Here is the input.
Amino acid sequence: MRTVIFLALRQLWARKVLSGIAMGAVSLGVLVLIAMSGVMLGFRGKFLSNMLKVSPQVTLYDKELLREPPILQRGEPLLVATESAHEVPTDRVSRIKRPTEIIHAVEAMEGVIAAAPVVSGSAVISYGSKELPVEVRGIEAARQERVTPLGPYLIAGRMQTFQASTDGVLLGSGVAARIGAKLGDTVRVGSPKGEPRVLKVVGLFEAGIPPVDNARIYVPLRLGQQIVGRPDAVGRIEVRLADSERAPAIAARVETLSGYDAESWQETNANFLSLFKMQDKITGFVIGSILLVGGFGILAIQIMIVLSKTRDISILRSVGFTRRDILVLFLAQGGLVALMGGAIGDVLGWLAARGLSHVQVKMETFVKAESFVIDDKPEVYLLGLVFALLVGVLASMLPARRAARVEPVDVLRGQIG
Amino acid sequence: MLGAKTILETRSLTRELGAQVKTRILRGIDLTVPRGQFVALAGASGSGKSTLLNLLGALDRPTSGEVRIDGVELGGLDDDERARLRGERLGFVFQFHFLIGELSVLENVAVPLWRRGVPRAEGERRAREVLAKLGLAALEARTPGQLSGGQQQRVSIARALAGRPRVLLADEPTGNLDSANSQIVMETFEQLVRDDGLTVVMVTHEPSFARRADRCVRLADGQIVEDTLRK
Here is the structure.
């Protein structure tokens, strides 16, 4: 095997320029793989980590899955009319019944760290002459800190002040900027169904997710219930888990336990996750195309070498090299070109990732960032090498098989009559 | 059974070429070559001498008949076993030197040894030994492109000898050389037979070279028409 690798290296060295071109194409593929994956994974990682920090991993909604049958129907299921064909007006507020019991039961479940009640709804915040529609969230600050802590994201004010206040509000940094409110200012928050309240700004938060920072405010639970017109109602229970990947399984168990609809963060963010999946496919397609070009380069060069090296193959076969040796010789050449190209691509990719992380960009869509966020996973570099090697070996397969099939006698007979 | 001194033997050897229209190149060749004999295969172009040499060298398979090399019947060997046999027991010299252009003279000679698992340093030592014997020691670092035609052919002889073969098969080894270099090649063969007891089978068109062999086997239309023992 060492002799075969030695010969492969010598033949590659003798065709430095051609080998270099094929190597360059593979390097480019791996470079793009690393740079694009770095940016994509960085963006995704930042989005998901931010999202998971400010969003619960499981959310229990006020939608009952199995309603209890009316009292009369329990005795005579077939004889009592229980449904009306027309819509019945109702002022019943949808809510989670016995929220405290459910919270305790959920917190007792294996894998659950904490659970907290929340009420939310749409409202309008006004400060002076400025008004802005917002999503108001009523929370129990102490409990909520164990589920989706806001403390780390406060850029003004203190969490303790919010916990102690009865009329305090935390504003998203974007909300504050849009209406021009500052810490200590008084704002008015109201909704069509609830009671408008005058609140004191006790803190500003910035989660780094523009849809949250630009549209959300937090108030104490009771105050929130009054503002959105759902007195004493808990609209959802948010749950924090030890392992976010177990969210779908735990959400299913929470549903069974409570009888209410529970959603994992993956389900809640399904749109974003499917977007990421599509992004993966596009990235894979681009990288695959570039590597394919590299592969074709290797294929073309290898075919050329096999055609021009038929005599050498014959002589190697006549001095004891087996067909397998010849196959390995050409596979090794393709593999070595690809592996070296992959290694160069890894280095260039690493440099490109460093460079991109210093490029100034202003992102304010899903994630707020000043520059590209790069996720430099070592696995991606390894993947680059493995992909490159695979492309090189696969591209060499055809010419290598052709070389291995060379019958020395055919060549020698042709040459010497 | 082969005689104790027999190194090559063919029995009723035939070789046909062509898929649709078959051309019979060899017609029932029976040949026995004892160890240490220098045999010249002579004959006109198309008489079948190169085909016979390729069959003796396990480079080709007969249509029918048997070939035995050093007691081994080739019919029962697969491709890899034939390759190993070529590497271990046979040496080839062709009309064209067929040296590998990317390798130095020393590497060209040592590569077959390395392939057989001879350690690198030992392979180089043995290659140097053969090169020195053929007067090529000073050229070991050169590439084939930097050598004259005669030197290239002598390097290809060195490559064939480095593996210490039992039989050296040469197909028109002087066909591309001038008379001075041809003389050197012929003298080398004679010396190898005389001093080392090597068996040499050489295809040649040149009657004067055929006469220098111990035995001259003449072919015509795929058959042996003359088998003359001179020494």
In short: The radius of gyration of chain A is 33 Å. Chain A has two domains: 2-51+272-412, 95-234. Chain A touches chain B through 29 residues (CB under 8 Å). Residues 95-234 of chain A form one domain.
